[in-house]
Amino acid sequence: MSLHEEVDALRRVPLFAKIEPSKLKLLAFTSEKLEYQRGQDLCKQGDAGDAMFIIMAGEADVIVNTPNGEHTVARLGKNSFVGEIAILCDVPRTATVRASSTATVLRISKELFFRLVGEFPQIAVEIMRELAHRLDDTTKALAKAKAA
What we know:
The chain is of the alpha+beta class. The chain has a single domain (3-147), classed as Sandwich (Jelly Rolls), CATH 2.60.120. It contains five helices and eight strands, in the order ααββββββαββαα.
């Protein structure tokens, strides 16, 4: 994927939709592009949160360890982001993220992430929206499980 293609792909990620192309080019250039094969972990539950990930192609599962084994709680696809909680809260990873197909991702370091949020507050608003949606989904799933 060329730098131009990465910028176009980033523009389609809601988190970065309102950022000017020159800044997206800088983001694409300063982030790390990685390829994961099916079954490889992007990050593991309990590890230090030193980066977030943007899925540029492919899919990944979000998996939590429970007393009864691993439990898949979400499947992420193209233009999704993950790993922001460990960065924002400065806590260990809350889940394992595992490629469920060949996946191309951009790894955005903690330092770059905070620089972006400082320069573009709209990113923080988009992250809050996504976290609110995830919390709502989790609350509904817990209520459903409790009722069963």
